[in-house]
Amino acid sequence: MNLKLKPVKLLLFDIDGTILKTDGLGRRLLEDMLARLCGRPISAEQVSFSGKTDPQIVREILMRNGFSASEADALAPEALAAYVETARKAIAPRHIEVLPGVHDLIDHLATRDDVQLALLTGNHEVTAYCKVEAAGLGGFFPFGAFGSDHADRAELPPIAVRRAYDHTGHTYAGKDVVIIGDSVNDVWCGRGIGAFAVAVCTGFTDRATLAAQSPNLLLDNLCDPDLFLHHVMNHV
Protein backbone atom coordinates (compact mmCIF):
# COMPACT_ATOMS: atom_id res chain seq x y z
CA MET A 1 0.00 0.00 0.00
CA ASN A 2 1.40 3.40 -1.01
CA LEU A 3 0.71 5.77 1.87
CA LYS A 4 1.48 9.46 1.53
CA LEU A 5 3.97 10.47 4.20
CA LYS A 6 3.06 13.40 6.43
CA PRO A 7 5.68 16.14 6.91
CA VAL A 8 7.50 15.44 10.16
CA LYS A 9 8.46 19.03 11.00
CA LEU A 10 6.26 22.12 11.06
CA LEU A 11 8.42 25.17 10.28
CA LEU A 12 6.78 28.41 11.42
CA PHE A 13 8.51 31.50 10.04
CA ASP A 14 8.26 34.98 11.45
CA ILE A 15 8.26 37.72 8.78
CA ASP A 16 9.75 41.09 9.76
CA GLY A 17 13.44 40.85 10.62
CA THR A 18 13.50 37.13 9.88
CA ILE A 19 12.74 36.72 6.18
CA LEU A 20 12.45 40.36 5.11
CA LYS A 21 12.62 44.02 6.10
CA THR A 22 10.45 46.92 4.95
CA ASP A 23 12.65 49.91 5.85
CA GLY A 24 10.22 51.21 8.46
CA LEU A 25 7.20 51.23 6.17
CA GLY A 26 4.82 49.85 8.80
CA ARG A 27 5.87 52.44 11.36
CA ARG A 28 5.35 55.29 8.89
CA LEU A 29 1.96 53.97 7.79
CA LEU A 30 0.80 53.56 11.39
CA GLU A 31 1.87 57.06 12.37
CA ASP A 32 0.14 58.63 9.34
CA MET A 33 -3.03 56.58 9.76
CA LEU A 34 -3.30 57.19 13.51
CA ALA A 35 -2.68 60.91 13.02
CA ARG A 36 -5.59 61.09 10.58
CA LEU A 37 -7.81 59.02 12.86
CA CYS A 38 -6.96 60.99 16.01
CA GLY A 39 -6.82 64.42 14.41
CA ARG A 40 -3.36 65.22 15.77
CA PRO A 41 0.26 64.09 15.30
CA ILE A 42 1.00 60.59 16.61
CA SER A 43 4.53 59.31 17.17
CA ALA A 44 5.59 55.67 17.29
CA GLU A 45 9.20 56.59 17.98
CA GLN A 46 9.32 55.20 21.52
CA VAL A 47 7.55 51.92 20.70
CA SER A 48 9.48 48.80 19.73
CA PHE A 49 7.69 46.68 17.11
CA SER A 50 10.04 43.69 17.41
CA GLY A 51 8.26 40.42 18.19
CA LYS A 52 4.91 42.09 18.89
CA THR A 53 1.48 41.66 17.36
CA ASP A 54 -0.20 44.47 15.43
CA PRO A 55 -2.96 44.89 18.08
CA GLN A 56 -0.31 45.14 20.80
CA ILE A 57 1.68 47.70 18.80
CA VAL A 58 -1.33 49.91 18.07
CA ARG A 59 -2.38 49.86 21.73
CA GLU A 60 1.13 50.78 22.90
CA ILE A 61 1.40 53.65 20.40
CA LEU A 62 -1.91 55.10 21.50
CA MET A 63 -1.01 54.89 25.18
CA ARG A 64 2.40 56.46 24.52
CA ASN A 65 0.52 59.35 22.94
CA GLY A 66 -1.69 60.11 25.91
CA PHE A 67 -4.63 57.74 25.53
CA SER A 68 -5.76 55.78 28.56
CA ALA A 69 -5.85 51.98 28.42
CA SER A 70 -9.62 51.99 28.01
CA GLU A 71 -9.46 54.66 25.30
CA ALA A 72 -6.78 52.71 23.45
CA ASP A 73 -8.80 49.50 23.68
CA ALA A 74 -11.87 51.27 22.30
CA LEU A 75 -10.00 52.89 19.40
CA ALA A 76 -7.76 49.94 18.48
CA PRO A 77 -10.22 47.91 16.32
CA GLU A 78 -10.97 50.91 14.08
CA ALA A 79 -7.28 51.80 13.94
CA LEU A 80 -6.27 48.26 13.00
CA ALA A 81 -8.87 48.04 10.25
CA ALA A 82 -7.69 51.35 8.80
CA TYR A 83 -4.05 50.28 9.01
CA VAL A 84 -4.68 46.98 7.25
CA GLU A 85 -6.49 48.71 4.42
CA THR A 86 -3.74 51.32 4.10
CA ALA A 87 -0.95 48.72 4.20
CA ARG A 88 -2.71 46.47 1.70
CA LYS A 89 -2.58 49.28 -0.87
CA ALA A 90 0.90 50.53 0.04
CA ILE A 91 3.05 47.39 0.31
CA ALA A 92 4.99 46.81 -2.90
CA PRO A 93 8.20 45.00 -3.93
CA ARG A 94 10.15 48.28 -3.85
CA HIS A 95 9.61 48.42 -0.08
CA ILE A 96 10.85 44.89 0.57
CA GLU A 97 14.38 43.71 1.31
CA VAL A 98 14.52 39.92 1.38
CA LEU A 99 17.15 38.95 3.91
CA PRO A 100 20.29 36.98 2.95
CA GLY A 101 19.80 33.30 2.24
CA VAL A 102 16.02 33.36 2.58
CA HIS A 103 15.08 32.68 -1.04
CA ASP A 104 17.51 29.77 -1.31
CA LEU A 105 16.40 28.29 2.01
CA ILE A 106 12.67 28.52 1.28
CA ASP A 107 13.15 27.22 -2.27
CA HIS A 108 15.02 24.23 -0.89
CA LEU A 109 12.57 23.54 1.93
CA ALA A 110 9.68 23.63 -0.54
CA THR A 111 11.19 20.63 -2.39
CA ARG A 112 11.21 18.44 0.71
CA ASP A 113 8.34 16.18 1.72
CA ASP A 114 9.38 16.00 5.38
CA VAL A 115 8.64 19.63 6.29
CA GLN A 116 5.53 21.81 6.25
CA LEU A 117 6.06 25.54 5.86
CA ALA A 118 3.79 28.10 7.51
CA LEU A 119 3.88 31.56 9.08
CA LEU A 120 3.85 32.69 12.70
CA THR A 121 3.83 36.46 12.84
CA GLY A 122 2.43 39.42 14.71
CA ASN A 123 1.26 40.87 11.41
CA HIS A 124 -2.42 40.87 10.56
CA GLU A 125 -3.06 38.01 8.13
CA VAL A 126 -3.76 40.40 5.24
CA THR A 127 -0.55 42.41 5.66
CA ALA A 128 1.46 39.23 6.29
CA TYR A 129 0.53 37.82 2.90
CA CYS A 130 0.97 41.20 1.21
CA LYS A 131 4.56 41.23 2.46
CA VAL A 132 5.46 37.67 1.45
CA GLU A 133 3.85 38.18 -1.97
CA ALA A 134 5.84 41.38 -2.49
CA ALA A 135 8.97 39.49 -1.45
CA GLY A 136 8.43 36.89 -4.17
CA LEU A 137 7.58 34.21 -1.61
CA GLY A 138 3.91 33.83 -2.38
CA GLY A 139 2.62 30.28 -2.40
CA PHE A 140 5.16 28.86 0.04
CA PHE A 141 3.13 29.47 3.20
CA PRO A 142 -0.41 28.08 2.86
CA PHE A 143 -1.47 28.92 6.42
CA GLY A 144 -0.21 30.37 9.66
CA ALA A 145 -1.07 32.17 12.87
CA PHE A 146 -1.28 35.95 12.88
CA GLY A 147 -1.72 39.04 15.00
CA SER A 148 -5.30 39.15 13.74
CA ASP A 149 -5.86 35.83 15.56
CA HIS A 150 -4.72 37.03 18.98
CA ALA A 151 -2.93 40.03 20.49
CA ASP A 152 -0.79 37.75 22.69
CA ARG A 153 2.00 36.15 20.69
CA ALA A 154 2.15 33.19 23.07
CA GLU A 155 -1.33 32.22 21.89
CA LEU A 156 -0.23 31.93 18.25
CA PRO A 157 1.77 28.64 18.26
CA PRO A 158 -1.23 26.52 19.36
CA ILE A 159 -3.33 28.20 16.66
CA ALA A 160 -0.69 27.36 14.05
CA VAL A 161 -0.57 23.74 15.22
CA ARG A 162 -4.36 23.41 14.91
CA ARG A 163 -4.27 24.86 11.41
CA ALA A 164 -1.42 22.52 10.50
CA TYR A 165 -3.62 19.60 11.48
CA ASP A 166 -6.48 20.97 9.37
CA HIS A 167 -4.10 21.36 6.41
CA THR A 168 -2.11 18.11 6.67
CA GLY A 169 -4.12 15.77 8.91
CA HIS A 170 -1.00 15.42 11.05
CA THR A 171 -0.64 16.43 14.70
CA TYR A 172 2.62 18.27 15.36
CA ALA A 173 3.91 18.40 18.92
CA GLY A 174 7.00 19.29 20.92
CA LYS A 175 10.23 19.81 19.00
CA ASP A 176 8.53 18.86 15.72
CA VAL A 177 7.15 22.41 15.85
CA VAL A 178 9.97 24.79 14.87
CA ILE A 179 9.60 28.55 15.31
CA ILE A 180 12.07 30.69 13.38
CA GLY A 181 12.31 34.33 14.38
CA ASP A 182 14.54 37.27 15.23
CA SER A 183 13.18 38.50 18.56
CA VAL A 184 13.02 37.50 22.20
CA ASN A 185 9.28 36.96 21.80
CA ASP A 186 9.89 34.54 18.93
CA VAL A 187 12.16 32.48 21.18
CA TRP A 188 9.81 32.17 24.13
CA CYS A 189 6.37 32.19 22.49
CA GLY A 190 6.47 28.46 21.73
CA ARG A 191 7.74 27.25 25.08
CA GLY A 192 4.23 26.50 26.27
CA ILE A 193 3.99 23.76 23.64
CA GLY A 194 7.64 22.66 23.84
CA ALA A 195 8.54 24.01 20.39
CA PHE A 196 12.08 24.17 18.98
CA ALA A 197 13.20 27.82 18.79
CA VAL A 198 15.53 29.07 16.07
CA ALA A 199 16.74 32.64 16.66
CA VAL A 200 18.38 34.57 13.82
CA CYS A 201 20.38 37.76 14.31
CA THR A 202 18.94 39.58 11.30
CA GLY A 203 16.38 41.78 13.05
CA PHE A 204 16.59 44.46 15.71
CA THR A 205 17.72 42.26 18.60
CA ASP A 206 21.44 41.75 19.14
CA ARG A 207 23.05 38.34 19.39
CA ALA A 208 23.84 38.57 23.11
CA THR A 209 20.21 39.37 23.98
CA LEU A 210 18.95 36.47 21.87
CA ALA A 211 21.57 34.10 23.33
CA ALA A 212 20.44 35.02 26.84
CA GLN A 213 17.01 33.56 26.01
CA SER A 214 18.60 30.13 25.35
CA PRO A 215 17.10 29.36 21.94
CA ASN A 216 17.61 25.81 20.71
CA LEU A 217 19.55 27.19 17.76
CA LEU A 218 21.14 30.64 17.28
CA LEU A 219 22.18 31.67 13.78
CA ASP A 220 23.72 34.83 12.38
CA ASN A 221 21.48 34.50 9.32
CA LEU A 222 19.71 31.92 7.15
CA CYS A 223 22.45 31.63 4.53
CA ASP A 224 23.39 28.00 5.24
CA PRO A 225 20.48 25.64 4.48
CA ASP A 226 22.56 22.57 5.34
CA LEU A 227 23.41 23.92 8.81
CA PHE A 228 19.80 24.91 9.41
CA LEU A 229 18.48 21.51 8.38
CA HIS A 230 21.16 19.57 10.27
CA HIS A 231 20.05 21.07 13.57
CA VAL A 232 16.33 21.29 12.90
CA MET A 233 15.77 17.86 11.38
CA ASN A 234 18.02 15.91 13.74
CA HIS A 235 16.61 17.30 16.96
CA VAL A 236 13.92 15.18 18.61
Task: Walk me through what this model shows.
This protein has helices at 25-38, 54-64, 69-90, 102-109, 125-134, 156-168, 184-188, 207-211, 225-233; strands at 9-13, 20-21, 97-98, 115-120, 144-145, 177-181, 196-200, 217-219. With 236 residues, it is α/β, with parallel strands linked by helices. It folds into two domains: 9-22 and 96-233, 3-Layer(aba) Sandwich (Rossmann fold), CATH 3.40.50; 25-90, Putative phosphatase, domain 2 (DNA polymerase, domain 1, Orthogonal Bundle), CATH 1.10.150. A six-stranded parallel beta sheet has the order 5-4-1-6-7-8, sandwiched between helices. A two-stranded antiparallel sheet has the order 2-3. The model has no long low-confidence stretch (mean pLDDT 94).
Low-confidence stretches: none
CATH fold-level assignment of the largest domain: Rossmann fold
CATH class categorisation of the largest domain: Alpha Beta
What is the first-to-last residue Cα distance? Answer: 28 Å
Number of helices: 9
Largest sheet: 6 strands, parallel
Care to give the gist of this entry?
The protein is α/β, with parallel strands linked by helices and 236 residues long.
Helix and strand topology:
Blueprint: E1 9-13, E2 20-21, H1 25-38, H2 54-64, H3 69-90, E3 97-98, H4 102-109, E4 115-120, H5 125-134, E5 144-145, H6 156-168, E6 177-181, H7 184-188, E7 196-200, H8 207-211, E8 217-219, H9 225-233
Parallel strand pairs: 1-4, 1-6, 4-5, 6-7, 7-8
Antiparallel strand pairs: 2-3
Helix pairs in contact: 1-3, 2-3
